[in-house]
Amino acid sequence: MENKKRYYLGILFVLLSAIGFSSLQMIVKMLPNVSVASKLFYRNVIITIITYILMKLRGVSCKIEKSEWPLLTARVIFGILGVIISFYTLTYILLADSTTIQKLSSFIVLIFSYFFFNEKFTKIHFMALVFSFIGVILIVKPGSSSFSFGYILAILGAFCSASAYTCIRAIGLRKKVDPLLTVFYFSLASTIFSFPFVIVNGINFDLRTMLLLIGIGIFGSIGQFGITFAYNFASAKEISVFEYSQVIISSILGFVFLSEVPDKFSIMGYIIIILVGIFMYKYNLNREIKNDK
């Protein structure tokens, strides 16, 4: 009964995370005249404060072994690049398009895991990668009048995110850095990096803009801690599939608040990527069950 309760709590927090990240991206699109640096600053300064408070409550020290800094630094660099590209991309393409292309990072991680962790890359993994790229092509529509440079940036952002996730995984496998520290130093570095640009650009925002910028920080925190708590309650193999709910939530938010209507090819792309994600979730789960026997 206890395991079932933790499983449902894991699902709840994954869904909260999806709502948080989708809402964050929607607000970013609602602020086209605000610099990416300002959006990055407000996203991370609130997360930094909340994480620091949680660290103090849990008695987590800020100290990190010297051997762990190279991986943590790489996670910070790729993470900042990924967020900047994501925010910049949202200026040019639909919210749902951006969200779905970001999900490509989970498939790219398969390739990185093969090279860096010596994990098996099967024919099924290869076919999943091929179909996911077909889904992306349907969304991007290269050569059509609706093609935008923003789609290329979105794919680049997915690679940066996959690199950041790979670094996080490597840090996790070494088990020398508390997950809260990983979040804290990424958020702190992002805040420090973006602050000078915020000062140069000025902070004279009207009330609506200021509230939306604070909203970026709040929803970013919901997304960040939602996913963190989710995987504390349940394993990735049990609940990772529910992360694809973000595509649906982004589609709804884009339609209701931004009047965005994806074309039929983009919708086909969403469906392909979601179905491939669900299939890979079941495939990897079955492999783990067989390996445990």
Description:
With 293 residues, this protein is mainly alpha-helical. The protein has one domain (1-292). It contains twelve helices and no strands. The protein has helices spanning 2-29, 36-58, 69-89, 95-102, 105-116, 123-140, 149-174, 179-201, 207-233, 236-239, 245-258, 264-292. Helix 2 packs antiparallel against helix 8, helix 2 (36-58) packs across helix 9 (207-233) and helix 3 crosses helix 8 (179-201). It is globular and about 60 Å long. The mean pLDDT is 87.
What value does the average pLDDT take? 87
Overall structural class, as computed from helix and strand content, comes to mainly alpha
The rough form would be described as globular
Straight-line distance between termini: 24 Å
Proportion of residues in extended strands = under 5%
Pattern of helices and strands: HHHHHHHHHHHH
Summarize the amount of helix as a percent range: over 70%
Rg calculated over all Cα atoms = 19 Å
Largest sheet: none
Q: Please work out how many helical segments DSSP would assign.
A: 12
> How many discrete structural domains?
1
Helices, strands, pairings?
Blueprint: H1 2-29, H2 36-58, H3 69-89, H4 95-102, H5 105-116, H6 123-140, H7 149-174, H8 179-201, H9 207-233, H10 236-239, H11 245-258, H12 264-292
Helix pairs in contact: 1-9, 1-11, 2-3, 2-8, 2-9, 3-7, 3-8, 4-7, 4-11, 5-7, 6-12
Give a short synopsis of this structure.
With 293 residues, the protein is mainly alpha-helical. The protein contains twelve helices and no strands. Helix 3 packs antiparallel against helix 7 (149-174).
